[in-house]
Structures are given as structure tokens and as C-alpha cells.
Amino acid sequence: MTSAMVSARMISDLIVKGETPWEPVFSPQRFTPSASARTLMQETAQAAKGLTRRIFTPPQADIEALPCGHGGVVECGGEKLGVYKDGQGETFVVSIRCPHLGCQLEWNPDERSWDCPCHGSRFDYRGNLIDNPAQEDLEHE
């Protein structure tokens, strides 16, 4: 809604005055590759780190060693899985692959959720989508 309001003001200014004070802020020419190169490289490295973590990071524990009320990445049958064990010992197993772009999810003990370090998707301990950009729940095992 904010962009719509700014757009309306800009179009009105351009029609009436022939110029607008908002042009430098919303101009496509404001992007300068040399000034943005460092940020682009940092974000690319973060994405690569998240995508390769599934392959190179060892699991944190096995299911039996996981205490009640905790979650983590475990290895089961040669595959890394996300497991949460509730207070009664019931386990909830989900895929740790984010359905958005495939980054490895991390367990967030404070929120009891699976969080994607690449783009911010969040899922509850059962694998249900909490927050975007992912559009679907995690696969349940």
C-alpha cells in the first residue's frame, strides 16, 4: 500500500510539475554494481553456506540421545532429519530441507521451530509453515 501511495504522488507530480522529489529514491538507476558488490557477495556466500550445510554438516545427535523437550538434526538410516521430542517423549520427525530453495533448516529452541537461515522461512515442530517465503509445509517422516 505504501508503494501505491508513493507511485500516485510521483505520477501526479510528473504530470503537474514535470518532476518529482521521489525520483532519486525510486529510480532504477540508483543501483550501482560497484557499491553493491560487497553486499551481493556476502548474501551469495550466506546462501551457498545454507545450501551446502545439508551435505557437509554432521548431525548433532541421534534420536535416543535427544532429551525430552528438545529438537535437533539427527541421522537416521543414513539421512539427516529434523526431530523434536516433546515432554512425554513423543517424537516429531520432519525433513530439514526448506521447501523454498532447499537450504538446511536449523532448530530454534526458544520458539520451538525450524528456521531457514537463507531466506527466513519458519516451521513449527510438526513441520507446519509459520512464516514465508516458503509456500508449503515440511515433509513429515
Helix content: 25-40%
SS summary, helix count: 3
The profile of the biggest β sheet is: 4 strands, antiparallel
Taken from the alpha-carbon principal axes, the silhouette is: elongated
Strand content: 15-25%
Radius of gyration: 22 Å
> Which runs of at least 5 residues are low in confidence (pLDDT < 50)?
none
H/E element string?
HHHEEEEEEE
Widest β-sheet, arrangement of strands: 4-5-6-7
Helix/strand class: alpha+beta
Work out the number of β strands.
Answer: 7
Overall average pLDDT: 84
| First-residue to last-residue Cα separation | 40 Å
What does this structure look like?
The protein has 141 residues and is an alpha+beta fold. It contains three helices and seven strands. It has helices spanning 2-16, 23-26, 33-56; strands at residues 70-76, 79-85, 91-94, 106-108, 113-115, 122-124, 129-131. The protein has a four-stranded antiparallel sheet, with no helix packed on it. Strand 6 (122-124) and strand 7 (129-131) form a beta hairpin. The mean pLDDT is 84.
